[in-house]
Each structure stands twice: as structure tokens, then as C-alpha cells.
Amino acid sequence: MSSVSTRWSIIDSATAVHRVECQSLAQDADDGPADAALNGLDDQVVGYGLEARRAYDELKRTIGQVAGLLILAQAGGRRDAFDLPALRRAEAVQEEALDRVRRLAAPARLAAHRQRMLRAAELAGRALRALGDVAIVAGEIDLTQASNDLTRAYAVLQSTSESVFGMTMVDFRHACCTCGAMKR
Amino acid sequence: MSQYSIWVLEYSYVTKYHKSGVIYGAHNQGFVKLPYCYVLIKGNGHVAMVDIGYNNTDYGKHLADKFGVENWHSPREVLAGVGVKPEEIDTVFITHAHFDHFGNVEDFPNAKFFIQEREIAKWTWAMSLPDRLRWMMTAVDPGDIIRGLDLARQKRLTCVSGDLADALPGIDLHVAQDSHTFGSMWVTVRNDAASRTADNWVLAGDLVYVFDNIEGSGANVDVDTLYVPVGLAVGSQENLVMATEAMMKEVDYEARRVIPIHEERLSQRFPSRLMENGLLVTEICLADGETSKVAS
Predict the structure, then answer these.
(1) Could you say which protein family the record assigns here (chain B) (predicted)?
(2) Which of A10, A49, A65, A146 is most enclosed, with most CB atoms within 10 A?
(3) For residue B164, what is the domain's CATH number?
């Protein structure tokens, strides 16, 4: 992925949220992975970061989605939660992320980062597979294995966060409570 | 007879926030201060909160450096302003799943939480969508959903489907579907416990940011005031306006009884105290026998 195409994707998504005059747009245009924050990084690192970000986003969404389904099953009594087509989509996204991480060409100094991403992807996959083995214990749905794997997946993924590449758990640029509040 | 005391507790703020983010369509009208607050409700044997803020460990530095969010203080410090400890909180009503409302569950180890099922279900759905639709994931941290899952496993999370009367005695929950978020919730405190009461207070969450969302200028259409929705809706402006109408009906159209927690001017309508840490405590009402926390 070239830096130019990344810049445009950021601007495109930003304009969908912010008004034309919003200062966030000005910052977005200069503050994505194509900005000065990346100056001084070699191309291999930048290339790794941009591709890793895609996997990070996919895993972040997968983990959030599966956690939501588990909440619906546990607190909402929605035993049908796991039959939703969304679960199939979660599996597809997790597999895509896992493949992407496996294909990542990490510079030597980022090998440990890639390894953590791989671990997060595998744990998310384990959580999804555990949903297929959910048991009913004493009349209650037992989500222990899936919950534990998912929680660990989140913790490992969080440890790979890197704001220079936009790898953050919350995209604050799109948050209502920060819109236009860019520090000058 | 008043059953409950209500305080709005500021825990952080942004000093320069675009007015257009607060008032729909208010372009090029400058900036306002945007306080970040949560609400404490105390009385009738309960200590409850409406929303819980965010965890500064996870977000604080990024928010401070990039967005000018200032002066964050922990719930322990903020609640101390009204003589309460986080461990005393027994009930939390989460109005919606944005990080600054649902981002701090671990600080309340003894609380039971209420959130709309639709809020969880639709965020879950949104996370399954392709990148081109990811705007609908705005401001939600998967980590908060994970922590919500932990609450659920501890049987401390109740997913509410629609309105719920007497979640606590005299405290009702209402849903505003597809408005600010997919399953935003607002809270009514019926302070004399009667089913039809003249002593209702509405805690609006982010369905109303400021007074002007309720009493906006109607000059352009030749009326005194009208409802003007907040600047951000995952759902529709129509649903925001109709939620405002429902809230106003609940307080018999007495606008001061709808409490917007991002309103800088709350202290102009209610007694307040600026604490040593520079954060405001605003006293909305006092239960019988409760002493003021803002009187000097």
C-alpha cells in the first residue's frame, strides 16, 4: 500500500464524519500514517506498519464483535446470539487477519511485534472455535473458555498498539467528544 | 418529600470545543467549553451513577496530547467531593457505550450495571461490517465491551430491552433508539416516588448536550424556542428531537429539569462549587435529610 493511497483513505473517512470547517480535518490531513511522524522510518518499517494496521483493525473488530455476542448470550439471555450470520462474518474476518499477519514481512526489530499480533489472532480464533463447544452447565450457558481466550486476545492486541500507524483501540478522530477539540 | 439527591460531577473538560459539535448546524459559531461529567444519585438506600467516565490509563495521554482534554481526575477523587467512595456505588446506568461514558467499569467493583441490549447488539453488528461502514463504530472501545463481558459473567450486567420502570425505586430507564447511538438510554428520577409526579428529574446522557438543544433559538421560524439536536447522531436527528420531546413531557415541559451533562452553564442554574482540582460539583437537588455538598 502506498502512502498516497493511505492518506486518501484517511481523508475519505474523516469527511464522512466531520464538517468541512472542522479542525479535525486539517489535522487528519497531516496526522495519518503518511505524515511527518513517519519521517525517519525506513520504508520496510512503514510498509510493515501500514499492513499491520489492517490486521490490527480486523482483529479489534473481531474481538469487539465476539465480546458483544457473548454479552448478549450471557446477560441478554440470547442463546440465539451464536447463530447470527455475524458470527460467520467474525470468523471470516479473523481468518483474514490471521493470514495477513502470517504474510507480514517484519523487520528484525519488529519481529516480536509481529509475534504478538500472531498470538492475538490465534487467541481470537480459539475464542471463536470455543463458541462451537459452548456447554450448558446447571441450566446456564458456560462461556468461560471463549471469554478467557477473548480477554487474552484483547490484552495481547492492545500491547501491539502503535499510534504512529493509527493502531489504537478507539479512533478518537471520529469521536463526538473530541471532534474539533484538536490541541493547537 | 425528596427521596434522592442528584449531583453532576465534572471529571475532565475540553476548553475549546467547536459549537457545531454540540448544536446541529451551528457552523462557524466559535467554541464552547465542554465539560466531561457523570451523575451521582444518592438516597433511598442506594448510591447510583449515570455513566462512569473513562479510564485515564488507557486513553488519557492520547486525549490530552491530541485533543486538548484537560484535568482528568479519577472517580475516587471526584466522588470525594460529595463524600462518596467508588466502592459505595451499587448501581450504574450506562446511557451509551461511548468510551467516555462506559470506559471505567473496573473502578466500581460493587456496582451492578444497566445498559440497553440494543446498544450492545447494534455495536456488535456494526463491528461486523466492512471498513467502508466503520463510521458506525465511532468512539467505541472493544476493551469496554470485553470489560462488559466480564461484568456479565459476574452477573453484574443487565441488558435492558426498552423502557424499564423502577430499575431502582422511583428511577426509570427509557430507550431512545437510533438517536445519538443505536440504543441510547435516559433516566428519570421520580423524586417523590409517585407515578405522576411534579418532582421529576431527567438525566439525558448525550441525547442533550447543552441547554440550547432544548431551548434553541426559534427566530428563523418565528417561535421563541425549539429543540435543536446534538451535532452527532448514529441514528437520526428526528429520533433525537422526539427523544427530547419525550424527556420534556416527563418533566411537564419544565426545561430546567432535563439535565445535560456536557453543559458548561449548569452552575448558572443550580448551586455549585469549584473544587480545589478545578472541577465543578453541581447540586441538582437534595434528598430529605441530606446536607449540601456545595454550600460554603
Answers:
(1) Belongs to the metallo-beta-lactamase superfamily.
(2) A65
(3) 3.60.15.10
Instruction: Describe the strand order of the beta sheet including B258-259 as a list of residue ranges.
Output: B164-168, B171-177, B183-190, B200-203, B258-259
Q: Which residues of A touch B104 (CB under 8 A)?
A: none
C-beta separation of B160 from B30 below 8 A: no
Residue in the block written with cell 405522576:
B196
Check CB contact of A183 with chain B, cutoff 8 Å. Answer: yes
Residues 6+ apart with CB under 8 A from B226: B216, B217, B218
Determine, yes or no, domain membership for B296: no
Decide if A72 touches B, using CB distance below 8 A. Answer: yes
Which residues from B are below 8 Å from A86, CB to CB?
124-125, 128
How many domains in chain B? 1
Grid cell at residue B6: 442528584
pLDDT in tens, B245-274: 999 999 999 999 999 999 999 999 999 999
Closest CA to B209 of B192, B235, B186: B186
Q: Give B-chain residues touching A158 at CB under 8 angstroms.
A: 143
Per-residue model confidence as pLDDT tens digits over B104-144: 999 999 999 999 999 999 998 888 888 788 777 777 778 88
Find the residue in A nearest to B134 (Cα).
A13
- Domain chopping of chain A, boundaries: 42-171
Residue with cell 453532576: B8
Residue A1 at interface with chain B, using a CB cutoff of 8 Å: no
Confirm if A59 and A124 have CB atoms less than 8 A apart.
Answer: yes
DSSP label at residue B234: S
All three cell numbers of B175: 430507550
CA-closest candidate to residue A19, choices B178, B10, B19: B19
Number of H helices, E strands in chain A: 6, 2
Range of the domain at B205: 4-285
Task: Give how far A98 is from chain B: nearest CA, Å.
Answer: 16
What are the chain B neighbours of A62 within 8 Å (beta carbons)? 127
- Asked if residue B287 lies in contact with residue B5, where contact means CB atoms within 8 angstroms, the answer is yes
Closest CA to A114 of A105, A122, A123, A125: A105
The answer, yes or no, to whether residue A5 has pLDDT greater than 80, is no
Contacts of A178 in chain B (CB under 8 A): 14, 63, 66-67, 69
- Nearest Cβ partner for B153 among A143, A170, A178: A143
Please tell me whether the interface predicted TM-score (ipTM) of this complex is above 0.90: no
B266 in a structural domain: yes
Please state whether beta strands B157-160 and B112-116 pair in parallel, antiparallel, or not at all (unpaired). Answer: parallel
Taking CB atoms and an 8 Å limit, are B120 and A174 in contact across chains? no
